[in-house]
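Dear H.,

Thanks for agreeing to be a second pair of eyes. The structure we're designing against is below in token form, covering all 133 positions.
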């Protein structure tokens, strides 16, 4: 089958492993209370990026385990966010595009006070240093 104009034989990863999605965050009454100071946490950042579609497959980055809640660090006091992602294969040519998609989504959704860094998780890509530039 074709996706995005690519034939199956043109895909870098013809048979990616599909992972179960995380459960939705439980909404609390305090989430709607403007009087409660609500800091950003890793789950909130994960929820912003988990549904981004993979550029090569009709699956989300979460389903492919490219983004994981445990690879997100948030320092709300210092206005810093670090997202590390894991390409599905070590030579993934879509890594730069995936990183850019994550970064753009966060920059569009978060207050401008945040410095957003998006990197490939160490040891998961052969050109990690070049892509992280």
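And this is the sequence the design step returned. I haven't edited it by hand at all.
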């Amino acid at each position: 089958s074709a996706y995005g104009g690519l034939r199956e034989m043109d895909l870098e990863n013809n048979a990616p492993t599909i992972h179960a999605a995380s459960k939705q965050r439980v909404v609390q009454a305090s989430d709607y209370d403007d009087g409660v100071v609500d800091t950003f946490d890793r789950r909130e950042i994960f929820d912003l990026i988990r549904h981004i579609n993979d550029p090569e497959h009709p699956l989300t980055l979460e389903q492919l385990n490219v983004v994981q809640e445990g690879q997100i660090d948030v320092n709300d006091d210092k206005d810093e966010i670090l997202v590390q992602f894991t390409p599905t294969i070590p030579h993934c040519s879509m890594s730069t595009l995936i990183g850019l998609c994550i970064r753009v989504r966060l920059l569009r959704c978060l207050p401008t006070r945040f410095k957003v860094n998006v990197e490939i998780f160490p040891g998961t890509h052969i050109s990690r240093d070049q892509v992280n530039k």
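Two observations from my side: The helical segments are 42-49, 95-109, 128-132. The radius of gyration is 16 Å.

Warmly,
E.
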